[in-house]
Design brief:
The structure is a single chain. The N and C termini lie far apart (about 55 Å). The longest helix is centred in the middle third of the chain and has 19 residues. Strand 5, helix 6 and strand 6 form a beta-alpha-beta unit. It contains 15 helices and 17 strands. The strands form three sheets. A nine-stranded mixed β-sheet has the order 16-15-14-13-7-12-11-8-17, with helices on both faces. The chain has a six-stranded parallel β-sheet with strand order 3-2-1-4-5-6. Strands 9-10 form a two-stranded antiparallel sheet. By secondary structure, it is α/β, with parallel strands linked by helices. Bound molecules: 6-O-phosphono-beta-D-glucopyranose. The site of 6-O-phosphono-beta-D-glucopyranose (BG6) has 4 residues, from loops.
Amino acid sequence: MSFDLVLFGGTGDLAWRKLMPALFQAFRHGTLPEGGRIIGVGRDNLSHDQYRALLHERFNNVEIAKRPSEEEFTLFAQLIQFVRMDLSKPDDYASLAATLQQRNADTVVMYVATAPSLFTVVCEQLGAAGLNTPKTRIVLEKPLGHDLASNRAINKAVCKVFGEKQVFRIDHYLGKPAVQNLFALRFGNALFEPLWRREHIANIQITIAEELGVETRGAFYETTGAMRDMVQNHALQLLCAIGMEPPINAHADAIRDEKLKVLRSLKPWTAESLGTDVIRGQYAAGSIMGSAVPGYREELGVNAESHTETFVALRTEISNWRWAGVPFYIRTGKRLAGRDARIVVNFRPTPHAIFNAQIGASNSLVINLQPKDGLELHLLAQGASNRRQQQALSPVQLDLDFDKRFGTGRVGAYERLLLDVIDGRLNLFVRSDEQEEAWRWVEPILQHWKNDAQGPRPYAAGTWGPSASSAMIARDGYCWSEEN
Ligand code: BG6
């Protein structure tokens, strides 16, 4: 099957850092269908060879194991071309159409990795140039809009030109191996299903912590913030994967229907819960791995009095029979104490204690997404050899490290998702109604913050965020997993 992959934003950060390295990995693994062409699109006046040379240079920033050798690069570069385009000019789409017609590939993928403000115009122009044939698929990067209205406007414009089955809204968290394994754990095994409910689960914690600050993206981040950048999409998708009912089959719509139900069941915000159950923070200067780092307001492109949040912690519930009353905590932030993404499922304590020191003992299942992916099951066991301690239980941990089990060369998130687009598999992509529902739910928070002159609470870089985040969870009698 031949394909053409057109990469709008071909000289942008995402193309260099994620998309090209992922395409190269697929090429190296032999999974990129043969007969493919990757066409970078940008405003610069570059020849094919100049673009390839830039790509070659950018591969130096990729971790060594994922960098091509000279021979590999020469072969990979044969797939790469460049087309100069001004995305607002109809004529430029006509010449893109001519380039594509020369080859008439079986599948044409339009990957729009540009600023979201260009999504609408790109879709309209693709339609006007007749580039929306049934063999075309369009990939849209997040963020899709900055609120419900703008998200709807984009989806409306896209759906005028493409059918929903042609639209691949990417959330790279869904492509992470750990998320695949979460689906496998829940729907490929019977073990946990009877326990996966309010009767047995005390609370669930979703943490996506980053050590990095906003780096060179200060100007973008100023208008985005952690809620739009991470919670509206990645964190809510994880919450759906944890909370959804088993789908009737593994087809895209069966999965997406169940995720949508979760989003629709999220407890609506009230004036009171907006005040008590959502904490926003912003990093101040601090230290990461022993090195001093500046505060958010000192970063390039950031307003010195910015109210943009770099941290969010919140408490919500899924109001349905399975989950009523179980708190789901979400926490994400930049410049936190570690790069650490995990979901912790805390089970209820034993109802009656017969061992010493067992009061309140409980089990937990940890799904690690980053830096390594794997599962940990926390149990209590009697390990003491000393007779006097015999009645005491000690915590033990069963580990399933997926790298050790399956090797480290597994398929990364973007690699997997790009191959899914080329193959036309929509399972791991987000449908417009899911996206709208997620926006509908976060909007009252954004509105509340807009009217709240207090702004985010400062936290020192290298910590776990403002202390109010721990206080919020402590109110329910729980603590974040690292505080245990
Ligand atoms: C992106 C956000 O979607 O996800 C970034 O825009 C964030 O701000 C990144 O750093 C995190 O992704 P990962 O895969 O490194 O956890």
